C-alpha cells in the first residue's frame, strides 16, 4: 500500500526556536505507543537523555499529524538509537524504515562534522519482537537478553561508514 504523504523533521537543537513544540509532538507519539499501547510506565517515558537528544519526527502532510518518532543520543564512542515508535494505524508504510534511515543520515553528518571519518557505532536496546526489524538495517545482537522497564530487550549494534 502506498504511504500517505509525509515529512521528516529533525527537531531543532537545544536553544533553537521550535524545539519544545516539536519535541512535544515526539513525546505524544511515544506516550501513545509505549504507554497506552504497550503499557510501559508513564513516569519513565521522558528521561534524562531527552533534554539534549536529537529528536526526529514524522508527520503526515498536509495535516501535520505526528505519527512517528525516533531519538538519537551521542555517547563517548557510540551513538544510541532509542524511542522508535510509529502509531499503530500507520505501520507497514515504511515509516519505521524512514525514521531509522533519517537517524543514520544524522549520525553520519554529525560524525563527519566532529572529524570522525572512519566507521561509527550505533547501539540500540531492541524489544525482542522487533529484533528482525533492526537486523534489516545492519544491527546484530550482542550479549544476552536483559530486562529493561520490565520487558526483555537485546543489545543490537550497527557499524556504519561515516563516508557513505
Ligand atoms: C517497530 C516499528 C517502529 C516498525 O514500524 P513500521 O513503520 O511498521 O515498519 P516499516 O513499515 O518501516 O518496516 C520496514 C521493514 O521491517 C519489517 N518489519 C516491520 N515490523 C517488523 C517486526 N516487528 N519484526 C520484523 N520485521 C518487521 C517490514 O515488514 C519491512 O520489511 P521490508 O522492508 O522487507 O518490506 C513499529 O512496529 C512500532 O512502532 N512498534 C511499536 C513500538 C516498538 O516496538 N518500537 C521499537 C522499540 S525497541
Characterise the protein shown here.
With 164 residues, the chain is of the alpha+beta class. It has a domain at 6-116: 3-Layer(aba) Sandwich (Aminopeptidase). It is 26% helix and 35% strand. The protein is built from three helices and seven strands, in the order βαβββαβαββ. The chain has helices at 19-37, 95-113, 131-135; strands spanning 6-10, 54-60, 66-74, 79-86, 119-127, 140-148, 151-161. It has a seven-stranded mixed sheet, sandwiched between helices. A hairpin with a 4-residue loop joins β3 and β4. The radius of gyration is 15 Å and the shape is globular. It binds coenzyme A (COA). Coenzyme A binds next to β4, α2, β5 and α3.
Topology, element by element:
Elements lengths: L5 E5 L8 H19 L16 E7 L5 E9 L4 E8 L8 H19 L5 E9 L3 H5 L4 E9 L2 E11 L3
Parallel strand pairs: 4-5
Antiparallel strand pairs: 1-2, 2-3, 3-4, 5-7, 6-7
Bound molecules: coenzyme A.
* Overall geometry: globular
Per DSSP, the total helix count is 3
Give the C-level CATH assignment of the domain at 6-116. Answer: Alpha Beta
**Remind me, CATH topology of the domain at 6-116?**
Aminopeptidase
Ligands bound, unique: coenzyme A
Could you give the count of β-strands?
7
Helix content: 25-40%
Give the mean pLDDT: 96
Which segments are poorly predicted (pLDDT under 50) over 5 or more consecutive residues? Answer: none
Q: How big is the Rg?
A: 15 Å
Per CATH, which architecture of the domain at 6-116? Answer: 3-Layer(aba) Sandwich
CATH superfamily of the domain at 6-116: Gcn5-related N-acetyltransferase (GNAT)
